[in-house]
Amino acid sequence: MVWQKEDKFSYDIFIEKHKTIFIFFVSVFVCLSIRLFYLQIIKGDRYRKISDQQRMHNTYERAPRGIIYSEDNVVLVENKFVFVALFYPFKQCQVPSDKGIGKLNKIFGKDVRLMINMGYKFGKVVKLADNLTLEEMFKIRENKLNFKGISVLKESRRVYCYPEATSHITGYIGEIGADEIEELLKRDYKIGDYIGRGGIEQIYDKYLRGKDGGWQIEMNSIGCQIKEFMYIQPEIGASVYSTINLKLQKVAYDALRDSSTGRGAVVVLDAKTGAVKTLVSCPGFDANKIGTKDFNKYLKDKKLSLFNRALQALYPPGSVFKIITFAAAVELMNINYEETVLCNGSFKLGNRNYSCWRKQGHGKVNLFSAMVQSCNIYFYKLGLKLGVKNLRKYAKKFHLGEKMGIDLPNEKKGFVPSPEWKKSKLKMRWLHGDTVISSIGQGALWVTPLQMACMISAVANKGICRRPYVVDRIVSPNGDKIYSHKLDFEERISLSDRVWDLLHKALLEVVESGTGSRSKIPGIKIAGKTGTAQNPQGDDHAWFVSYAPAESPEIAIAVIVENGGGGGYNAVPIGRKIYEAYFNMKSEESVK
Amino acid sequence: MIKSRNFYRHLVSVIDFQLIFLVITLMFISFAVIYSACSNYGMSFKYLSVQLLAFIIGFFGFVLIVNFNYQYYKYLDKFIYILSSVLLVSVLIFGSVKRGTRGWFNFGFISFQPVEIAKIMFILSLASFLDRKSKETGKISFLISVFVMLVVHLILIMMQPDFSSTLSYFPVTLILLFTIGIEPFYLFCIVIFGSLAVGIPLLETFLSMQLQFSQSKTFLTNFIVFLKANWIGVYAVVMILCLIISCWYFLWKLKIRIAPIYPTILCISILLGCLSSLAVERSLKDYQRKRLVVFLNPRFDPRGSGYNIIQSKIAIGSGKFIGKGFKKGTQTQLGFLPEQHTDFIFSVIAEEEGWVGAQIILFFYFFFVWRAFVIAKNARDRYGSLVATGLASMFMFYIVINISMVMGMMPATGVPLPLLSYGGSSIFSSLCAVGILCSISTRKYTHS
Fold it and tell me: What ipTM does this complex have?
């Protein structure tokens, strides 16, 4: 009994209630302890991670991309460093004063107030000006006190050293677009990164891009930088050694540009390995102008300079296809090449006339002279005898209508027509006339210049096909070879030796005394075939495919001059220039 | 002279040293934590000096109150109640406004919040009233008088407006009524009435926000849409009432006699609760309701009212076992944690000192309240017991409301943590309350 004035009974009641309250009190504290344990011990790791996430912030410094070299170790694409002015809102947590902004506007010649305010509001780095001159840079450095939060940084810029001639091979770079960002984020790209577009830049992007560096900083709740944790030096991308021979490339580009129309493509392959020594599409473009106003000029260009004609343009092969008809005829029909056919300039099939390119006709021609003079009448008859099935089979044997597998993007397949295709697509029966024009490479037959180059290279090698490639090896910054091309795709077109021998003989004769005689170079035996592909939309395309030296082929060339007219007049001289350049270069090397 | 010396010797010999030790320890911890929490603003010195000043003033108040015999309060109850009401009225007239609340007397270098001391005065006068009327607890007039006493204070505080300060009034009043011997069933009915009146609008707000937020149709949300659409809610209430009555009738038939007054009161309180929920729904603005329910799911409003709770949970959780170290808490020092030296000071401790430190603080508070309950048990008379119980439950609810708020179990309200949070008025009134507790414990009956 404790209470003095009250009775014992009421104290007992009080003690009872007191106990209840006390039990309630203990249980509440137990609840609090359990919750505390749950938050700190059970969920502790998760909350620690969240707390780290919201204070850490990464700012990136973009790595310079790798350098692209040519076969002769000339730099095709490199980086140059420019100064850029950035607004970096983390360090001082301040925007420049009004006076400072006024000065900045004067230096840059544009109003930057809005950009700065947006950057400050969202805590983002804003690029205020690009490509500062030294004078501008020093002006900014001088007024550092007025320009709070403005810093001048070095940034690497891509430089294409031989823009017009090599831009189609090297490609260019562009910022990642909104439509592809989701896919690329998984592959460790970031918003605002640059990615290769076209050419080597696109295909070998993962080697070229290097590793971005940057700072990891600690920020407080209002987005000010408190501490800098670490700085990671950006790592330059790997160097790419291409197979492109810059001298040949330049010669080919100049020759094409000076040709009758200035449009066309040249592909030069190393006949032994399939390495692409030259790949020119004319007109070229200047990849340095990407993102500038000048670039719109290319987009609107009627000459389609961004279009890589060597892999993407489809042309009818014209007389060049006679090589395939020739091979098929010799292999399948065991033809007597002495047997002559009369060419009087036209050939009547049904009620239509199919003419030879020479109006007055070639007179009596045999297999050889038909090839050398490129007589159409002889090949019409040959094609009719062979039939469309065999023509198609041999076209497929030479890999027409399929990709060659070059390591450049957007290669086209081309097309080889068939009676089934005509029936299902055009709802028309295959006529003998279709077979006739197919045998001289007209009709719905479409090939790319690269395919023609591969075809002639296969002929030169007696049937050995190799996958064309432009990148020989890739070397990482510390000198390790991280990629090198393997000569893997080897397939032999199985034809008898007799076919190859006859074909070589005929092709040699073409240059020696036939349509390709303009490419004759004393001392070097060149074998080739010209073509004048009829083009329903305009003037004829001029073709020239060849290889040299004929006895042990080193290079194979395909030249097309778009709407260039006769192949012998327009395409062959370009081939000749390339051969001259190639063999001069070789003799110089041997002198050394 | 000799007499007073003897008295002090007696006082020192019987004073509750455990309680004083706990208070002083908590005060020193408070200084350390405020120093750490405010170093981020670079104003530790200012806050520390204010806290120290409040502690010194509070300590003098404490010494005065310990010497003063608490039994006199019993006879001064009307005066105390009127004085507290006058304080609350005058702050409405002369007070200065801070953060939208007219609740401070500004004395230039220091300002004082009278609501803190008014709470203690309310407990003193309510305990005296209950003590005097302890024989009349069955009368309805008794409950009404208590209710009036409570409502006058609540209205005065709500006029400031200071919602969070009213929170501790309800549990303290309920516990004191329970202690004096009111039938728990009536208290239960009052709680049902209150929770229905406030709970239904909040529940509705919560569910409608859940519906907006998740867009997924769960069983519960479908059910609520169904209820709202077809007046089913009314039928449901009627059904519950019928169920209660039929249960009672069934038990009556089984010869388990329960006076008919119980089901009647229960039914009336449910009905009244449902009706007054309509009134509450009208009077609370949408954003207010939103703010109250955000604690159930802070993701409703992560940048607004949910932000504080999310950041506080991150701070507490990221402390893990031993914490990030004194002055090294990233949530605290980088300013992610809001109100870190006042309402969210527990989060600072939990982040920097980890589970170990936070649990020790919890234990300190546990012993503190436990000592207060022991004092209530050993008091010399019923008045002393009632006052001690009231003060103990006041501390208990302050602590529970604050800590469960920072751990995301309750709505974000501005209730400080007694003895730890920065705030002169809070420290001063807490020390005065401890003084009253000590005054009760020194005058307990001893056999010697």
Answer: 0.86
Amino acid present at B246: S
Of the candidates B178, B315, B321, the beta carbon closest to that of A41 is on B321
Is the pLDDT at A527 greater than 70? The verdict is: yes
Per-residue pLDDT at B316 exceeds 50: yes
- Identify which of A4, A47, A55 has the shortest CB distance to residue B381: A4
* pTM beyond cutoff 0.80: no
Q: Which residues, 6+ apart, have CB-to-CB distance to B435 below 8 Å?
A: B61, B62, B63, B64, B65, B66
Residue A533 or A106, more confident:
A533
A144 near A88, Cβ under 8 Å? no
Contacts with A6 from chain B: Cβ below 8 Å: 381-382
Q: Hey, what are A566's tokens?
A: 């006769």
Which tens digit of pLDDT belongs to each residue from A410-451? 899 999 988 888 888 888 888 888 888 888 888 888 999 999
Residue B326 in this model has a pLDDT that exceeds 50: yes
Q: pLDDT value at position B223?
A: 65
For residue B104, list its beta bridge partners. B96
Rounded CA gap, A560 and A544, in Å?
A: 6
- In terms of Cα–Cα distance, which of A142, A148, A118, A112 is closest to A130? A112
Confidence grade of residue B209 (pLDDT, cut at 50, 70, 90): low
Across the interface, do A220 and B175 touch by the CB < 8 Å criterion?
no
Looking at the complex, report in whole angstroms how far the Cα of residue B67 sits from the nearest Cα belonging to chain A. Answer: 20
Closest CA to B427 of B57, B164, B148, B66: B57
DSSP symbols for A535-575? -TTSSPEEEEEEEESSSS--EEEEEEETT---HHHHTHHHH
Instruction: Compare CB distances from A221 to B336, B382, B400 and report the shortest one's residue.
Output: B336
CB contact under 8 A, A36 and B389: no
| B409 lies within 8 A of chain A by CB | yes
Which residues of B, range 288-347, sit inside 8 Å of A by Cβ? 313-321, 330-331, 333-336
In SS3 terms, chain B reads as CHHHHHHHHHHHHHCCHHHHHHHHHHHHHHHHHHHHHHCCCCCHHHHHHHHHHHHHHHHHHHHHHHHCCCHHHHHCHHHHHHHHHHHHHHHHHHCEEECCEEEEEECCCCEECHHHHHHHHHHHHHHHHHHHCHHHCCCHHHHHHHHHHHHHHHHHHHCCCCHHHHCCHHHHHHHHHHHHCCCHHHHHHHHHHHHHHHHHHHHHHHHHHHHHHHCCCCHHHHHHHHHHHCCHHHHHHHHHHHHHHHHHHHHHHCCCCCCCHHHHHHHHHHHHHHHHHHHHHHHCCHHHHHHHHHHHCHHHCCCCHHHHHHHHHHHHHHCCCCCCCCCCCHHHHCCCCCCCCCCCHHHHHHHHHHHHHHHHHHHHHHHHHHHHHHHHHHCCCHHHHHHHHHHHHHHHHHHHHHHHHHCCCCCCCCCCCCCCCCCHHHHHHHHHHHHHHHHHHHCCCCCC
pLDDT at B448: 43
CA closest to A18 among chain B residues: B179
pLDDT at B216 over 60: no
DSSP reduced 3-state for A495: coil
Two structure tokens written together for A193: 């990164």
Residues in B touching A20 (Cβ below 8 Å):
178
Distance between CA atoms of A555 and A569, rounded to whole angstroms? 22
| Strand pairing report for A471-475 and A481-484 | antiparallel
Is B178 touching A (CB cutoff 8 A)?
yes
Do A244 and A279 meet the contact criterion of CB atoms below 8 Å apart?
Answer: yes
Residues of A in contact with B313 (CB under 8 A): 39, 47
Give A277's pLDDT tier (boundaries 50, 70, 90).
Answer: very high
Instruction: With CB atoms and an 8 Å threshold, state whether B181 touches A33.
Output: no
